[in-house]
Amino acid sequence: MPAFAAVVGVLLTAVAVRAAPAPVAAAPAVPVHEVRLSLAVPVGAAFEFVEISMFALDDGASPLEDRIAEGRAAMLARFPGAIELEPAEVSAQFQIFGIRWPQPFATWLYNPEGGPASMPAETALEAIKAGAGGWTNAGGTGWHFDFLATTTTPTGCNGIPESIPRDGLNVVGWGHIAGGYLGYSCWWSGPSFVDGTPYFEMTEFDLIFQPEFSYTGASLQALALHEFGHALGLDHTEAPCPGQVMCEGRDAMTFSTPREDDINGLIALYGYAPTPTATPPAPSATATPSATAPPRPYRAVLPVLARD
User: I need a surface site. Which of 104, 136, 300, 308 has the fewest CB within 10 A?
Assistant: First the structure.
């Protein structure tokens, strides 16, 4: 059994070297630098947090910064879809619904009917647009909400799931909400996953705000930022709150821009925007008509409600 004997010999030698006292004139140890990684790792539609300690050898063979960067990249590659967190963020826990839009954007229309008496109609619209705009390219994701126009189409979100009509339009508007809530978010998702992701495809959302509250421009913007967060796929942040845009209840009206944990949730859903590359001009040519793909059948499941 020569192979087995060789292995045992190596193990015994290693133990003996480790146990032996260091010579008095031993050279100083080569310095090492500890590198910590805090990751949010996707597990299905949820995330688990992982703490990793690595040690970079500083022996002068290569720049320490390069060695650390290479090691971090190699470790991150072992956790596809993981998000690197700052140490203070490990306790913050964004949540997602397991749904997202096929592309990193969504359009919306605004119905001003029944708006609040606490501010002019134009001010209300600008505050809501500012809330939606707070998510624009947050965290380098490339995400954006695109406002199209005002409309007379009513928002379908009326708090009664069985009675919410779907019309393929994302409408934001006003209406009485029972129970003292200030905002309702309703969204529909289809039965299919977005290509290359574990998330179901969103097909429509509607938002409704309670007009009887005495809003300021800042408070309405903060509420809109929160509700549009639901409209892109974010759930309420786990306790403790406040501290994040997606906290529920009165804490939903604290911030006018996404916080770090909110952004991590957005990155989890949509990733980072690709770096644009220069495209050489194409030679002019006569365009050839191409066939138009038939529209996909519209399928949706029971809508989901979020109330704040």
Answer: 136
